[in-house]
Every structure is written in C-alpha cells, then in structure tokens.
Specification:
The chain is mainly alpha-helical and about 90 residues long. The chain has 4 helices and no strands.
Amino acid sequence: MHDATIHMSREAMLAHTIADTLNTTGFNYNHFNEAMANDIHRTVQQFWMKLIVNYIRFAASDAYRTDARNKASKELAEQLNCTLNDIVVYLPCI
C-alpha cells in the first residue's frame, strides 16, 4: 500500500500541517504571532507575509470554494483584496 504523503507536494503537506494544528482546541493565535515575529528568521517572515497576501487574493477569487462554513472568510478576503489592489505589495527576498 502506498503512503499518500509520498506523492503530496510540500505545499500540500504544509497546508495539511496548518489545518491539523488549527483544528485543535486551544490554538493560541497570539503565541503563534509572537513566535513568528521573534523566533523565525526575518526572510522567512517575509515569505510568510507573501503567502498570506497570496492566500487572501486566492480566497477572493472565483476559484475559492465557498459554503456557509467559510462564507465570512470569502467576504473578508474580497474586502481585503480591494485594499491590496489599491496599494503596491512589494515583498522582496533579501
């Protein structure tokens, strides 16, 4: 029997790891933010922000599958995307 994770992209594996972590009781967003800001390399922080901006843009698109469970996320992403479209988002890798 094949292990499905062998053929899973690293991006998909990260998405599943994030989902598994968030899908537990007691995830502390503030602790995560502090760890990201204080313990993670500055360049990786830049990549993280780039990922967030990219995800917001994707969630605002027609490709984002929506139902009642994530409708509020879709609506927020659409509003944020309007703001993102009004500014220059430049996140270089230094």
